[in-house]
Amino acid sequence: MTDPVPTTCMRCAVGCGLIQRGVDIGYGIDTVRGNANDPVNRGMACSRGISETADPDGEWLTRPMVRRDGELTKTTWDTALFEAQRGLGEAMDRNPDAVAILGSGQQTNEAAYALGKLARGGIGTRYYDANTTLCMASAVTAYYDAFGSDAPPPTYEDISKAETHVVWGANPAVAHPVMCRWITQSAEDGTLIVVDPVRTKTARAADHHVAVDPGGDLDLARAVLARVVETGGVDEAFVDAATTGFDDLELPDSEAAADRAGVPLSTVDRLVETLADDTLIYWGMGVNQSVQGTDTAGALIDLCLATGNLGPGTGPFSLTGQANSMGTRVCSSKGTWPGHHDFDDPEEREVVADAWGVPVERLPDDTGPGPVGIVDAVREGSVEAVYTVATNPVAGMPDATDVADALEDAFLVVQDAFRTETVEHADVVLPAATWGESNGTAINMERTVSRIRPASDLPRGVRTDLNIIQTLGNVLVNDLFDPTAAPAAVFDEFAALTAGTDADCSGISHERLDEELAVRWPASDAETSAGYRYYEGEEPRSSESREEPRSSEGRTASGDGGDAVAPDDWSFPTPSGRARFSDGTGRPLPEPTDEEYPLLLTTAREADGYNTGVRSRESPDDPGTLVARVHPDTLDDHREVIEPNEADDLLVRVASRRGEVIARVTADDAIPSDVVWLPIHHPATNDLTHPATDPRSDEPNLKQCAVRLARPESDTVTPAFERERPPQHP
Ligand SMILES: Nc1nc2c(c(=O)[nH]1)N[C@H]1C(S)=C(S)[C@@H](COP(=O)(O)OP(=O)(O)OC[C@H]3O[C@@H](n4cnc5c(=O)[nH]c(N)nc54)[C@H](O)[C@@H]3O)O[C@H]1N2
Ligand SMILES: Nc1nc2c(c(=O)[nH]1)N[C@H]1C(S)=C(S)[C@@H](COP(=O)(O)OP(=O)(O)OC[C@H]3O[C@@H](n4cnc5c(=O)[nH]c(N)nc54)[C@H](O)[C@@H]3O)O[C@H]1N2
Ligand code: SF4
Ligand SMILES: [Mo]
């Protein structure tokens, strides 16, 4: 084994510090364990984080490939890069917007920053986005709406201080296991409430499971806020001093809204009661992946604002998914310029163009239509060439058959570490290094930057993402990159652009991270590592100084013992300096059930699968059996279409208006009746899902669509010619 190398887990955005050792001979990681010295996790780690880092399944890409006579054929780097340059360059020369680039929350900051520089500054395309828009975009939009900034106020330190933990549309026991342990430990002396239609592992660990109807979240959040107001639970001093928009709120009748959400008013009142204590509201994909994702995330932030839950041990905490989604938000020039600079700000555009050495006119005027809109442009033909890095859109995007068809007709360059469904449609395949082989940084969900370090050499045919992006970038655009720039220098270039912003990383460097392991932004100089609460007074009261649970009065300046938050000391980067209540009114599910498609499909994660499952299956040819979970009553109701196979597995066909899949069906009373639950880790799942998006965030409504069950052997129930393409924004 090689010497121990400290690094960061790239399985989820908790961002645990790990110690890895490379194998003695050849390539690969031998052992991985939690790093006891890392301030983020103090040695804790989860089994998936360890096992998938050390020993992923999946078919590694080890050589570049190009398509010859319809077949992907191994070739040299020179040939692959030449072909990539030819296809992307020809489209770019015709029109920068004829090239689309799709990035990922699974790249290092250095690679993500370089990809953004190539897309926005080198090529100058609007059609650049990342899989983080399938994931975090609604939370990001809601944070900007409320705080004028995408800096989440809470950090992990708040978890042990909170009294109430409300987990809304998320299943951290499966998706963020180490963080979930912190939450359940803290909740031993407090309360854990889980809002989820499904009785998940997290819900089973909760004091109270609120089984909201799928898509009922905005109604429920508004019902809770209406009851907070009715019962005098508003922290008026905080609302008066630090917020705007409260008086303009149009709140529904609480009973009617609770009824629409499928939740009894007594449960709403229980949520209202617990909000009087120090409360953290965490939320995940059950909220974000919806046509009303931004509105619902905004309504959850409103609950915190109205009840003054913004100091220590409290606040709205969006559970970021991929390990470097937060980094993508800060550095990738996707929705903002590096450091959250406003995309439209003329001065900032000058600064960025100048730093990149490109004409400012080349920067696109707007951030583009999101991944679903990009695929629309590919299908319509205005986008001719597509470059994907660390993402698998042919399996991860909604209405995936349509995505595959669209990409099939484009010139497609795929840069991945594994053979994926998207690779199968590529014209050029660029094999990239993955985590144990890469050098750079990542940012976790509480804004902490840490190092990714290689513990293994690279196989000969494989290059790092940064190296590939720099090389391809320079053949497309003369001198865009310094080809000798190491990751540390690329980090410095990115960090300099963030100086003075709310995401200031200018005091962070690889060198500093080598010493300190983890540094949280904003960090404007080499000494600071900041918390960020939009609070400019003395550090707000901490729970240690409090004996009694806080009343809403306790959150005001005149609260208990003089250590309370002084409302006047709050300062938000909004024009008024105040946090803003939201005004989203929501919209119905894009595809409600009906007679023809009477069941609702929902999709989510399992403990031992990761996203589209690329690293947790043998090969794209063998994604394993898709297992659908349905309530026992739903199973009984559909006995006539369920057929056992030779192994006595119960097989059924799940069909939507866009596609159909064969699944093994199991009865599970954790699933509400008339709902079909499918894991996202099988590439077939997204053949069924609906491409409607949230008009504010462009995030797709991946969590609900209408399906029906049919006999596995029956004729195709949704023939291709019948496939309807629904409007994107219903
Ligand atoms: N094991 C594992 N861990 C992962 C990942 C993985 O693939 N596998 N992926 C990582 C990534 S990229 C992400 S984004 C995170 C995601 O982490 P989570 O957000 O926890 O992910 P999901 O399981 O997709 O969805 C969370 C919950 O939303 C619920 N839900 C569905 N519809 C609704 C609804 O209408 N309302 C409400 N309130 N809830 C609803 C589902 O039942 C599910 O329990 O996980 C990260 N960690
Ligand atoms: N129905 C439904 N669909 C969903 C979701 C859902 O809940 N329901 N969730 C959505 C969410 S939250 C997300 S984040 C997306 C994810 O969607 P995708 O990005 O499409 O899926 P992943 O499987 O995470 O693909 C990541 C790819 O990056 C590759 N990779 C890993 N490391 C590296 C590296 O260092 N370099 C390079 N070049 N490649 C690398 C992996 O091999 C893998 O192929 O899926 C979305 N799709
Ligand atoms: S909780 Fe997330 S970051 Fe930590 S070890 Fe598990 S997968 Fe990795
Ligand atoms: Mo995600």
Automatic annotation (TrEMBL):
Keyword field: 4Fe-4S, Iron, Iron-sulfur, Metal-binding, Oxidoreductase
InterPro entries assigned: Asp_de-COase-like_dom_sf, MoPterin_dinucl-bd_dom, Mopterin_OxRdtase, Mopterin_OxRdtase_4Fe-4S_dom, Nitr_red_NasA, Prok_molybdopt-oxidoreductase
Matches recorded under CDD domains: MopB_CT_Fdh-Nap-like
GO cellular component, one term: membrane
The keyword 4Fe-4S appears for this protein: yes
Pfam families xref list: Molybdop_Fe4S4, Molybdopterin, Molydop_binding
Annotated segments matching region Disordered: 530-595, 683-730
Transmembrane annotation, as ranges: none
Domain 4Fe-4S Mo/W bis-MGD-type residue range list: 2-60
NCBIfam families recorded: Nitr_red_NasA_Halo (NF041323)
Protein name: Nitrate reductase
Lineage start: Archaea, Methanobacteriati, Methanobacteriota, Stenosarchaea group, Halobacteria
